[in-house]
Amino acid sequence: MKLCFALLAACLLLTACHGQDREEGVLRVGLAHMPATLDPRFATDAASVRVQELLHRGLLRLDESFHLQGDLATGWEQPEPLLWRFTLRPGLHFSDGTPLTAADVAATLSAVLNPALASPLRAGFAAVSQVEAEGRGVVLIHLKRPDASLLTRLTLGILPASIAALPQQARTTTGCGAYRVRLWDQHGLTLERVDLHSRVRVIHFTAVKDPVTRLLKLTRGELDFVQNDLPPHLLSYVRKQASLTMQTRPSTTFSYIGLNLQDKRLKDVRVRRALALALDRNTLKRALFADLPVLAETVLTPAHWAATKLPRIPFDPKLAETLLDQAGMRRGADGIRFSLNYRTSTDPARLQLATAVAAMWRRIGIDVHIESLEWGGFYARIKQGDFQVFSLAWVGSSDPDIYRWILHSSMWPPHGSNRGRYANPQVDAWLDQAAESASQQQRQLLYARVEKQMHADMVYIPLWYDPVIAVSGPRVKGFRPQPNGSLLGLKDIFLTESKSDR
């Protein structure tokens, strides 16, 4: 680590005096990896979700308190139990200048419902039977059954009907957001503002996998902004750089360890609980993440209306060993009980976490093999349910129906994100009732039961809520991090220009 900082300091000294020519109004953003897709019908990874917010808008949006606000829609009503009626704002246009009408909204939502498209979001709209346009300015959504969480999902970006009829358009898109795609090539993704009078006319996203390189580029002025893509061990150095500004804020991103509940060993809840008890989460977050995360017990943050207070999982390796003995998985002559394969990405912070977790599990007799894969290959395997153990995070969780998506037995891959293949008929029933209840109080009670059962069954090993860490260069003024990690605020920042930038 000392060598790393020494090399970093030397590089900064060598490059500090070198200016970087800039086009006025261009913001350069560094990402650990590029979005998987710009198509809102397929965006599930964090990079895709955050970038496409700049390109697309939905009927509704959520504010910081998870309350619904109108976006493309000015109003909505439920004239019948199985019917929603949305009125669109007048004068809406896509980025290519064509008018946005109710037919475009209907086409986009209908495409997600189409089994042939195979949208990963389809399961979230399972209660919808039909979407139709009533004239140019009204959208009607007909339901098969009540769905209390439908409105939250209507933040989905709307596409022109001509594009909505096509298969996934991963690298080209037309939306009605603040920006449109100018170019996506080997140098990165460039978005340009639809309103050319904006302060930030162009945003250029570049993939810079190595965190030290990202910091170097920030300090040299080759990048202007990075969010959540600098590991904590570099943050103390960031704080010492007069040219950089760092902001942190608690987030809605829930980090966890995923488990394959169909695995011959992990199907035993005693084994899963032993794995959780063997983790000293406080030490992990202090040593690896500058003590910035807040320990979590479930997906939704404590401030959410649907969250319930759960007992803290203690660090108790002695009890962990007892549970493993009770499960019939005693230590062998070599001290090993059994082996696990732990899949993770090549991201340095994730790899460090996997290494530290593996060391703690080895102390209770579990031999851990770490398999690190490039993001695309890693994420593809996790989505397929091809793993024993992995670590990831649910990004920006705001709707309690996330529990249906990750716990309901109908959501096993490829239909949803119950990747560990958990199955509990009682939990399914609670989730079904909560999804259909019109009473927020009743939903709160049902989700409390779900969270308690999820905790008891140790479906996931909870870690913490990640912090939002935004680092910007001297040109960026006025950015305010959001709990869900949204980059939408970049469109409203002040972007200053110095003589050396011109």
Plain-language structure description:
This protein is of the alpha+beta class. It folds into three domains: 16-34 and 177-244 and 473-501, 3-Layer(aba) Sandwich (D-Maltodextrin-Binding Protein, domain 2), CATH 3.40.190; 56-164, Dipeptide-binding Protein, Domain 1 (Dipeptide-binding Protein, domain 1); 251-466, Dipeptide-binding Protein, domain 3 (Roll), CATH 3.10.105. The chain is 29% helix and 23% strand. The chain contains 15 helices and 19 strands. The strands form four sheets. Strands 1, 8, 9, 10, 11, 12, 13, 14, 15, 16 and 17 form an eleven-stranded mixed beta sheet that branches. The chain has a four-stranded antiparallel beta sheet with strand order 4-5-7-6, covered by helices on one side. β6 (128-134) and β7 form a beta hairpin. α1 (2-15) packs parallel to α6 (211-220) and α14 packs antiparallel against α15. The protein is globular. The protein starts with a helix and ends in a 7-residue tail after the last strand. 41% of the residues are buried. The model is unreliable at 10-21 (pLDDT under 50). Belongs to the bacterial solute-binding protein 5 family. This is Extracellular solute-binding protein, family 5.
| CATH topology type of the largest domain | Dipeptide-binding Protein, domain 3
Oligomer: single chain
Give the mean pLDDT: 91
Principal-axis shape equals globular
Q: Extract low-pLDDT stretches.
A: 10-21
Instruction: Please estimate the helix content.
Output: 25-40%
Corresponding CATH superfamily of the largest domain: Dipeptide-binding Protein, Domain 3
Number of strands: 19
CATH architecture of the largest domain: Roll
Main structural class: alpha+beta
Number of domains: 3
Q: Which value, in Å, is the CA radius of gyration?
A: 24 Å
* Total count of helical runs of at least 4 residues: 15
Q: Largest sheet at a glance?
A: 11 strands, mixed
User: N- to C-terminal separation?
Assistant: 37 Å
Q: What is the CATH C-level name of the largest domain?
A: Alpha Beta
Strand content: 15-25%
